[in-house]
Amino acid sequence: MIKVRIPTPLRPMTGGKSEVEIAGKTVSEIIENLGSAHPGIKERVYDEQGEVRRFINIYVNEEDIRFLTGKDTPLKDGDEVSIIPAIAGGT
Amino acid sequence: MLAIPSSIIKDMIAHARELAPHECCGILSGSGGTIAEGYRITNILASLSEQDLKRFDGAKLSDLKRLSPEERSDIAFQMDAREMAMAQRDIRSKSLDLLGFYHSHTFSPARPSQTDITIAMEFESYRAKLNFPEPFHLIISLEHPNQPVVRAYRIQDSLATEVPIHSLP
After folding, report:
1. What is the predicted ipTM?
2. How many domains, in total, are found in chain A?
3. Are A14 and A38 in contact (CB under 8 A)?
4. Domain that holds residue A41
5. CA of A71: how far to CAs of A24, A26, A58, in Å?
6. In chain B, which residues have their Cβ closer than 8 Å to the Cβ of A54?
7. Which of A56, A62, A91 sits opposite B81 (nearest CB)?
8. Taking the model in full, what pTM does it have?
9. Which of B55, B93, B116 to mutate to test the interface with A (most CBs of A within 10 A)?
10. B103: Cβ contacts below 8 Å, ≥ 6 apart
11. Which listed residue, of A9, B67, B114, B133, carries a Cα 20 to 30 Å from B123's Cα?
12. In a domain? residue A91
Protein backbone atom coordinates (compact mmCIF):
# COMPACT_ATOMS: atom_id res chain seq x y z
CA MET A 1 0.00 0.00 0.00
CA ILE A 2 1.12 3.53 -0.78
CA LYS A 3 0.52 6.50 1.47
CA VAL A 4 -1.09 9.35 -0.49
CA ARG A 5 -1.16 12.91 0.87
CA ILE A 6 -4.36 14.73 0.02
CA PRO A 7 -4.30 18.55 -0.30
CA THR A 8 -6.75 20.65 1.71
CA PRO A 9 -9.14 21.45 -1.20
CA LEU A 10 -9.65 17.71 -1.92
CA ARG A 11 -10.13 16.55 1.66
CA PRO A 12 -13.94 16.85 1.55
CA MET A 13 -13.76 13.84 -0.82
CA THR A 14 -11.72 11.74 1.61
CA GLY A 15 -13.95 12.44 4.59
CA GLY A 16 -11.49 15.05 5.81
CA LYS A 17 -8.48 12.72 5.82
CA SER A 18 -5.12 14.27 4.92
CA GLU A 19 -3.55 10.87 4.14
CA VAL A 20 -5.05 7.71 2.68
CA GLU A 21 -3.54 4.29 1.88
CA ILE A 22 -4.07 3.20 -1.73
CA ALA A 23 -2.86 0.16 -3.69
CA GLY A 24 -1.05 0.66 -7.00
CA LYS A 25 2.20 -0.05 -8.82
CA THR A 26 2.44 3.29 -10.64
CA VAL A 27 1.32 6.87 -10.02
CA SER A 28 -1.34 6.39 -12.69
CA GLU A 29 -2.77 3.33 -10.89
CA ILE A 30 -2.78 5.24 -7.61
CA ILE A 31 -4.81 8.11 -9.11
CA GLU A 32 -7.24 5.64 -10.73
CA ASN A 33 -7.69 3.70 -7.49
CA LEU A 34 -7.91 6.90 -5.48
CA GLY A 35 -10.69 8.03 -7.82
CA SER A 36 -12.57 4.74 -7.32
CA ALA A 37 -12.25 4.90 -3.54
CA HIS A 38 -13.03 8.63 -3.36
CA PRO A 39 -15.19 9.69 -6.32
CA GLY A 40 -14.45 13.11 -7.77
CA ILE A 41 -10.75 13.26 -6.93
CA LYS A 42 -9.46 12.01 -10.26
CA GLU A 43 -11.33 14.75 -12.14
CA ARG A 44 -9.77 17.37 -9.88
CA VAL A 45 -6.25 16.03 -10.48
CA TYR A 46 -6.44 15.32 -14.23
CA ASP A 47 -7.67 17.66 -16.96
CA GLU A 48 -10.00 16.64 -19.80
CA GLN A 49 -7.02 15.20 -21.71
CA GLY A 50 -6.04 13.01 -18.77
CA GLU A 51 -2.97 15.08 -17.94
CA VAL A 52 -2.09 16.40 -14.48
CA ARG A 53 -3.68 19.85 -14.16
CA ARG A 54 -1.35 22.82 -14.68
CA PHE A 55 -1.53 23.95 -11.07
CA ILE A 56 -0.86 20.57 -9.48
CA ASN A 57 2.45 18.91 -8.68
CA ILE A 58 2.58 15.22 -7.83
CA TYR A 59 5.60 14.14 -5.83
CA VAL A 60 6.87 10.63 -5.19
CA ASN A 61 8.69 11.06 -1.91
CA GLU A 62 10.49 14.38 -2.54
CA GLU A 63 10.73 14.28 -6.34
CA ASP A 64 8.22 15.74 -8.81
CA ILE A 65 6.96 13.01 -11.18
CA ARG A 66 7.67 15.35 -14.13
CA PHE A 67 11.36 14.56 -13.47
CA LEU A 68 10.76 10.85 -12.99
CA THR A 69 8.67 9.04 -15.59
CA GLY A 70 5.48 11.04 -15.16
CA LYS A 71 2.30 9.10 -14.46
CA ASP A 72 4.17 5.85 -15.29
CA THR A 73 6.55 6.39 -12.38
CA PRO A 74 6.78 3.01 -10.62
CA LEU A 75 6.07 2.76 -6.91
CA LYS A 76 7.22 0.36 -4.25
CA ASP A 77 6.01 -0.29 -0.72
CA GLY A 78 6.99 2.55 1.56
CA ASP A 79 6.89 5.21 -1.18
CA GLU A 80 4.74 8.26 -0.47
CA VAL A 81 2.77 10.15 -3.08
CA SER A 82 1.88 13.81 -2.43
CA ILE A 83 -0.67 15.73 -4.49
CA ILE A 84 0.25 19.38 -4.01
CA PRO A 85 -1.40 22.42 -5.61
CA ALA A 86 1.24 25.02 -6.55
CA ILE A 87 1.26 28.20 -4.51
CA ALA A 88 -1.54 30.66 -5.16
CA GLY A 89 -2.96 33.69 -3.41
CA GLY A 90 -4.66 36.95 -4.02
CA THR A 91 -5.41 40.46 -2.97
CA MET B 1 15.90 39.98 8.84
CA LEU B 2 15.84 38.92 5.19
CA ALA B 3 18.79 40.00 3.03
CA ILE B 4 17.99 40.49 -0.67
CA PRO B 5 20.31 41.77 -3.42
CA SER B 6 18.91 45.09 -4.67
CA SER B 7 18.95 43.73 -8.25
CA ILE B 8 16.40 41.07 -7.21
CA ILE B 9 14.19 43.66 -5.48
CA LYS B 10 14.32 45.77 -8.66
CA ASP B 11 13.42 42.77 -10.80
CA MET B 12 10.42 41.84 -8.63
CA ILE B 13 9.13 45.43 -8.94
CA ALA B 14 9.77 45.39 -12.70
CA HIS B 15 7.90 42.07 -12.95
CA ALA B 16 4.95 43.52 -11.03
CA ARG B 17 4.87 46.61 -13.27
CA GLU B 18 5.12 44.60 -16.49
CA LEU B 19 2.11 42.48 -15.58
CA ALA B 20 -0.05 45.18 -13.94
CA PRO B 21 -3.01 45.26 -13.56
CA HIS B 22 -2.54 41.48 -13.31
CA GLU B 23 -0.71 40.00 -10.33
CA CYS B 24 2.76 38.62 -10.93
CA CYS B 25 4.32 35.74 -8.98
CA GLY B 26 7.63 34.02 -8.52
CA ILE B 27 9.90 32.14 -6.18
CA LEU B 28 13.19 32.96 -4.48
CA SER B 29 16.13 30.74 -3.70
CA GLY B 30 18.89 31.22 -1.19
CA SER B 31 20.25 29.92 2.05
CA GLY B 32 19.77 30.93 5.65
CA GLY B 33 18.32 34.43 5.60
CA THR B 34 19.84 35.55 2.30
CA ILE B 35 18.17 35.43 -1.11
CA ALA B 36 20.41 34.36 -3.99
CA GLU B 37 18.17 34.24 -7.06
CA GLY B 38 14.64 35.00 -8.24
CA TYR B 39 12.54 32.96 -10.68
CA ARG B 40 9.60 34.55 -12.46
CA ILE B 41 6.71 32.07 -12.61
CA THR B 42 3.71 32.46 -14.92
CA ASN B 43 0.41 33.40 -13.28
CA ILE B 44 -1.92 30.88 -14.96
CA LEU B 45 -5.06 31.98 -13.15
CA ALA B 46 -6.78 33.27 -16.31
CA SER B 47 -6.50 29.80 -17.90
CA LEU B 48 -8.02 27.92 -14.96
CA SER B 49 -11.41 26.29 -15.52
CA GLU B 50 -14.35 26.76 -13.14
CA GLN B 51 -13.45 23.34 -11.75
CA ASP B 52 -9.84 24.41 -11.10
CA LEU B 53 -10.97 27.58 -9.30
CA LYS B 54 -12.30 25.37 -6.49
CA ARG B 55 -8.75 25.30 -5.12
CA PHE B 56 -9.58 28.78 -3.72
CA ASP B 57 -11.58 29.22 -0.53
CA GLY B 58 -15.24 30.22 -0.51
CA ALA B 59 -15.06 34.02 -0.35
CA LYS B 60 -12.30 34.31 -2.97
CA LEU B 61 -14.04 31.74 -5.18
CA SER B 62 -17.22 33.86 -5.22
CA ASP B 63 -15.21 36.96 -6.14
CA LEU B 64 -13.35 35.13 -8.91
CA LYS B 65 -16.52 33.70 -10.44
CA ARG B 66 -17.99 37.18 -10.81
CA LEU B 67 -15.07 38.27 -13.01
CA SER B 68 -13.99 37.39 -16.53
CA PRO B 69 -11.00 35.01 -16.70
CA GLU B 70 -8.78 37.94 -17.73
CA GLU B 71 -9.93 40.12 -14.81
CA ARG B 72 -9.42 37.30 -12.30
CA SER B 73 -5.64 37.79 -12.53
CA ASP B 74 -6.10 41.32 -11.15
CA ILE B 75 -7.11 39.95 -7.74
CA ALA B 76 -5.31 36.61 -7.51
CA PHE B 77 -2.54 34.42 -8.84
CA GLN B 78 -1.91 30.75 -9.39
CA MET B 79 1.65 29.65 -10.08
CA ASP B 80 2.30 27.31 -13.00
CA ALA B 81 3.15 24.00 -11.32
CA ARG B 82 5.51 22.84 -14.06
CA GLU B 83 7.57 26.04 -14.00
CA MET B 84 7.65 25.89 -10.23
CA ALA B 85 8.93 22.31 -10.32
CA MET B 86 11.62 23.27 -12.86
CA ALA B 87 12.74 26.19 -10.72
CA GLN B 88 12.85 23.96 -7.66
CA ARG B 89 15.00 21.52 -9.58
CA ASP B 90 17.41 24.31 -10.59
CA ILE B 91 17.53 25.50 -6.98
CA ARG B 92 18.41 22.02 -5.76
CA SER B 93 21.11 21.60 -8.43
CA LYS B 94 22.79 24.73 -7.03
CA SER B 95 22.58 23.35 -3.47
CA LEU B 96 20.32 26.23 -2.46
CA ASP B 97 16.92 26.18 -0.77
CA LEU B 98 13.53 27.41 -1.90
CA LEU B 99 13.43 30.35 0.52
CA GLY B 100 10.45 32.37 -0.53
CA PHE B 101 7.45 33.16 -2.70
CA TYR B 102 6.55 36.57 -4.06
CA HIS B 103 3.53 38.10 -5.72
CA SER B 104 2.16 41.55 -6.40
CA HIS B 105 -0.88 43.39 -5.08
CA THR B 106 -1.70 45.78 -7.86
CA PHE B 107 -4.19 47.98 -6.03
CA SER B 108 -3.75 47.19 -2.35
CA PRO B 109 -1.09 47.39 0.37
CA ALA B 110 1.81 44.94 0.74
CA ARG B 111 0.01 42.88 3.38
CA PRO B 112 -1.00 39.22 3.07
CA SER B 113 -4.70 38.80 2.30
CA GLN B 114 -6.87 36.14 3.92
CA THR B 115 -6.41 34.04 0.76
CA ASP B 116 -2.62 34.44 1.00
CA ILE B 117 -2.71 33.27 4.62
CA THR B 118 -5.04 30.33 3.93
CA ILE B 119 -2.86 29.06 1.07
CA ALA B 120 0.35 29.66 3.03
CA MET B 121 -1.08 27.48 5.80
CA GLU B 122 -2.01 24.85 3.21
CA PHE B 123 1.66 24.86 2.09
CA GLU B 124 2.73 24.72 5.73
CA SER B 125 0.75 21.52 6.26
CA TYR B 126 2.96 19.52 3.88
CA ARG B 127 6.16 21.59 3.75
CA ALA B 128 8.19 19.63 6.30
CA LYS B 129 7.25 16.29 4.71
CA LEU B 130 8.71 17.50 1.40
CA ASN B 131 11.79 18.83 3.14
CA PHE B 132 11.24 22.53 2.30
CA PRO B 133 12.47 25.14 4.81
CA GLU B 134 9.98 27.64 6.22
CA PRO B 135 9.44 30.20 3.43
CA PHE B 136 9.32 33.98 3.45
CA HIS B 137 6.25 35.42 1.72
CA LEU B 138 7.00 38.66 -0.15
CA ILE B 139 4.45 41.09 -1.52
CA ILE B 140 5.10 43.90 -3.97
CA SER B 141 2.46 46.62 -3.72
CA LEU B 142 1.78 48.94 -6.64
CA GLU B 143 -1.00 50.71 -4.72
CA HIS B 144 1.00 53.92 -5.21
CA PRO B 145 2.51 53.20 -8.64
CA ASN B 146 5.43 55.62 -8.28
CA GLN B 147 6.32 54.34 -4.83
CA PRO B 148 6.26 50.55 -4.96
CA VAL B 149 6.56 48.82 -1.59
CA VAL B 150 8.10 45.39 -1.00
CA ARG B 151 7.52 43.63 2.32
CA ALA B 152 8.37 40.16 3.60
CA TYR B 153 6.44 38.01 6.06
CA ARG B 154 6.54 34.73 7.87
CA ILE B 155 3.12 33.12 8.11
CA GLN B 156 2.55 30.73 11.02
CA ASP B 157 -0.64 29.67 12.84
CA SER B 158 -2.64 31.82 10.40
CA LEU B 159 -0.76 34.94 11.49
CA ALA B 160 1.51 37.02 9.27
CA THR B 161 4.54 38.61 10.94
CA GLU B 162 6.58 41.14 9.01
CA VAL B 163 10.29 40.45 8.62
CA PRO B 164 12.50 43.49 7.88
CA ILE B 165 14.20 43.44 4.48
CA HIS B 166 17.87 44.37 4.21
CA SER B 167 18.77 45.38 0.68
CA LEU B 168 22.22 44.18 -0.36
CA PRO B 169 24.26 46.24 -2.83
Report:
1. 0.93
2. 1
3. yes
4. 2-85
5. 12, 7, 9
6. 44, 47-48, 80-82
7. A56
8. 0.94
9. B55
10. A89, B23, B24, B25, B26, B43, B77, B116, B138, B139, B140
11. B67
12. no
